[in-house]
Design brief:
globular; single chain; oxygen-dependent coproporphyrinogen oxidase; alpha+beta
Length: 303
């Protein structure tokens, strides 16, 4: 039987693997680790990498926290239970190169107990790609990797979770997706999936271990490309959309803030620089216009 301690231990190992792989990929920068404790219970390992040859700023964070749920979170989750435990790995990488994409990944486990003596538990997570310039070949490669991971566990996972990601990573006030999507899922249980707890746990770990080979491939392919100052400014502008989503819509950010999480760890997802350009209009036929036209839901990247 899987326990919360076993899940947390596995997530820490995945954090270690990814940090080692990203250091090798970057080639110059190293992660700095900060251990922290949460008021109310638990803590984590924040690992930040900055100023690398390709990674301008990135975080690979692990946490395992517990305590009492605030009333606002209980209401949002639609539960009456009080005591919670949550553990996971959260990653955001901001490259310094306009042709290398931003990437995000999160794998997590959550459980609650209360006066009803009824345990509520589930797995959640996702991985998505936010290119500054959408490269269709890269989007197809990325989605093929995710489908391969999903298909090992259930044939309908990819289609279902890809749709979920399209809907979740959507900037409503801009009417555009954050990037080319990926997969997103929440509240996975034996009841919702038909899988055993151990199988769902294996799926969660497999999603975590899809990150490194997929992203490394995209970094190595695109880091050798040259770019202009205009393309660099476009990168800063696209980063601003990432900031808007994370501060306005992201559920993980809201949960961290409302459960008195560590602010530096919660906001590590924000880039070191982002620009907001008033009333920007892309030039007709430009790469920027092409990218904006592909920031739409329900694109079948595998066809």
């Amino acid at each position: 039987m899987i326990t919360k301690e076993k899940i947390a231990e596995a997530y820490q190992l995945i954090q270690d693997e990814i940090c080692s792989g990203l250091e090798l990929t970057d080639g110059s920068a190293k992660f700095q680790e900060e251990l922290w404790q949460r008021d109310g219970g638990g803590g984590g390992r924040t690992r930040i990498i900055q100023g690398g040859s390709i990674i301008e700023k990135g975080g690979v964070n692990f946490s395992a926290v517990h305590g009492k749920l605030p009333e606002t979170v209980k209401k949002a989750l639609g539960v009456a239970e009080d005591d919670f435990f949550a553990t996971g790995v959260s990653i955001v990488i901001h490259p310094n190169h306009p042709w290398v994409p931003i990437i995000h990944m999160n794998i997590r486990y959550f459980e609650m107990t209360g006066e009803s003596d009824k345990d509520l538990r589930w797995f959640g997570g996702g991985i998505d790609l936010t290119p500054h310039y959408v490269i269709e070949e890269d989007a197809r490669f990325f989605h093929a990797k995710l489908k391969q991971t999903c298909d090992q566990f259930q044939s309908e996972f990819y289609v279902k979770f890809k749709k979920w990601a399209d809907d979740y990573f959507y900037i409503k006030h801009r009417q555009e997706t954050r990037g080319v999507g990926g997969i997103f899922y929440d509240r996975l249980t034996p009841y919702s999936t038909g899988l055993e707890w151990e199988e769902i746990f294996e799926f969660s770990k497999s999603v975590g271990r899809t990150f490194l080979p997929a992203y490394t491939e995209l970094v190595q392919k695109n880091r050798i490309k040259s770019f202009t100052e205009e393309q660099k400014l476009w990168q800063f502008q696209r980063r601003s959309r990432y900031v808007e989503f994370n501060l306005v819509y992201d559920a993980g950010t809201r949960f961290g803030l409302e459960t008195n999480g560590r602010i530096e760890s919660i906001l590590m997802s924000l880039p070191p620089q982002a620009n907001w350009v008033y009333d920007f209009t892309a030039k007709e036929g430009s790469e920027e216009e092409k990218t904006l036209k592909m920031l739409k839901k329900d694109i079948n990247w595998l066809s």
